[in-house]
Structure formats: structure tokens, C-alpha cells
Amino acid sequence: MKKIRWGVLSTAQIGRTQVIPAICRADNAEIIAIASRTSKVHAIAEELQIPKAYESYEELLDDPEIDAVYIPLPNHLHKEWVIRSAQKGKHILCEKPIALSELEADEMFAACKEAGVKLMEAFMYQLHPQHARAKEIIASGEIGEIKLMKSSHSFYLENRSTDIRMDAAMGGGSIYDVGCYAIQAIRHLTDAEPVEVQAEGDIDPSTGIDLTGIVRMKMSNGVHALFDCSFDMVSRNDYELIGTEGSLKVPFAFRPDLNGHIGTVLVHKSGVTREERILGDSYRLEIEQFSNAILTDTDPAITADSTLKNMRTINACYRSLETGEKVHIEETEETFY
Question: Pairing relation of β-strands 29-35 and 52-54?
């Protein structure tokens, strides 16, 4: 089987602990290079058994043996290095949120289209089969007509003085970091787009970033949605859909890897709860799906259209948080890449 040859831009923890091991587990991918702006990259490459180590991102992008790159850089650097990677002919898997605005994301996809390469936002959670099963149950009508969806994604952030998620200039903030998952899940599970958002939260007085966001959304199909995200609460990563005849809850929605890769779908109806346990390696599935999209020249699982709409909603949440007012989201002309 032909394998996509991967390089990684930066020695970020998520790459070292999650994505690079997933590339090694994937059937259609292999890791051949990693880059950093410091000499520590050599020790990390040796530790992770990566053949090539570069002390600059540019050197890695100039390597003709690399087919695709994974970019886990800070949010404010995504646009620059996605575009530079595209110009070097590399396909790109970029960490979420893909950018700091819908406009930035649009420019990134346009650059990739011009270069003839694929770009996908790294929402690994959606590749876990528990979400496809949840959609099947909803579509079957078992819990009736969906009226409300709720989602929570939080953790208590340690070492705040040095963590880039506390830096507004680098794209810090809980809505950017974990609220983006809830927004994406709500859009995906309800098959609708937000038309109104109302956000409130807790702003860190020293940095200006949102430590906590609580957002109410009205969807285009009339479903109400509510999500909370936080750096100031205990770890949670779930969603729940409430229908006219029952409810469905996924308690390890965004990090099933913290539960041994086992997803759980709980369906409550007529006083009885049914539990379905579904195994899936989210990070491996993400790598395999994107590598297969490259090999077969097909669309990635997370499309440009979906990513742009997610960024549109994130930006609306921040406008509402800043003004304290409800923000109406108007549909713009669709752009397909």
C-alpha cells in the first residue's frame, strides 16, 4: 500500500503525544520529518524515531520527499504556514481553530486551491464512529424531533503564566480553543447553521482572553443550542440532544481517547437508558482519512465549507462577548474549494 509521507512543523506537545504516534499507527501514512526553530528537535526526532530533523520550518518544506504536513503551531501562525506549505506543494492538516477569522480561513483555502493541495482542519473527534452512530439514531426518529442541544468542553488550565492559550495576540481564549469543538458538533448533529448567538463569559483581567464562554444559539431549523467552554472548570467533553420522545447523550464526545478510545452513546426513552459502546482511534482515523483523500484525490472529511462556517460562528461569538449584544449571522454566498 502506498503511504503518504508526513512532516510536522513544530515540536508541540499535541504532535509529540497524539498525532505523530497516530501517523505511526496508520496504515497509509508514515512520519519522516519534524522541524523546530531550535536544536532540541534532534533529540525529539531520535526519541520518536523520526528519520529527519530540521532546525527551520523552511528546510522541512523544501524536502521533496514530504507529501503532507501537520501544523500544530499557535493559532496566530496558522495562516502564514498553511500558505507557505501550500506554495511548496504540501497537503496540510492544520490544528483547530484553523485561523483567527473567517477571512483568514478563506484566504488559506484559496491559496491551497491555487497550489492544487488539500487542506483540512484537525477536528479529530468527528472521525470517531460514535458520532455517526448518534446521527443514525437521531435520523431514525427514536428520540423524536430535536428541540435542544447542549454541549460542554472544559478543563482547568495550569501554568497560566506561560501557556499560549492565555495570550490574546496568539489566538488564546476558551472559545477559540475548546468552544470551537462544541460549535462544530452542534452544527454537525443538528444539520443546521446558527442564525443567532448570544455570548457571555469571564474575561481574564490581565490578559483579556475569555476564561469561560457560555453561548446560546438559535439554529436555522429552529433547534435551540447552548454550550459552555472553559479553562476554569473541571474536565468535561460531552453533548446531549433532547427530543420530543427521548434524549441522547455522548459523555466522551471530544476526547474518547481519555476513555480508552471507547465512545459511549446513551439513549434515554420512556424511563429506560440504553448504552452503546463504540471503539475508535480518533487520531489514527483522522490521519488515515486525510491520507486517503490525498491518495484518491477526494474531499477531506472536514470540508472547507464546514470550516468556514465554523469560523463565522466563532467570530460571531466573540462579537457578542465583546458587545454584550445578540449577534445575527447572515448567510453569505457559498464558496466551494
Answer: parallel
Nearest to 18 by CA among 289, 258, 307: 258
CA dihedral sign, ordered 61, 66, 72, 76: positive
CA distance linking residue 250 with residue 240, whole number of Å: 6
Whole-number average pLDDT of the chain: 96
pLDDT surpassing 80 at residue 206: yes
Beta-sheet pairing, 146-156 with 224-230: parallel
- In the block, residue with C-alpha cell 502564514: 80
How far, in Å, are 72, 226, 305 from residue 293 at the CA level?
20, 33, 16
* Domains contained in the chain, CATH given: 4-122 (3.40.50.720), 128-281+312-328 (3.30.360.10)
Q: Where are the alpha helices (DSSP H) in the chain?
A: 13-14, 20-25, 41-47, 57-61, 78-87, 102-115, 129-140, 174, 180-190, 282-296, 304-323
Amino acid at 132: A
The answer to whether 121 and 102 are in contact (CB under 8 A) is no
C-beta separation of 253 from 239 below 8 A: yes
The residue that leads in pLDDT, 184 or 330, is 184
3-state SS class at 232: strand
Rounded distance, CA 287 to CA 308, Å?
Answer: 21
User: What are residue 248's DSSP bridge partners?
Assistant: 241, 267
Q: What pLDDT was estimated at residue 1?
A: 81
Q: 202: part of which helix (H) or strand (E)?
A: strand 194-203
Element of type H or E holding 273: strand 272-279
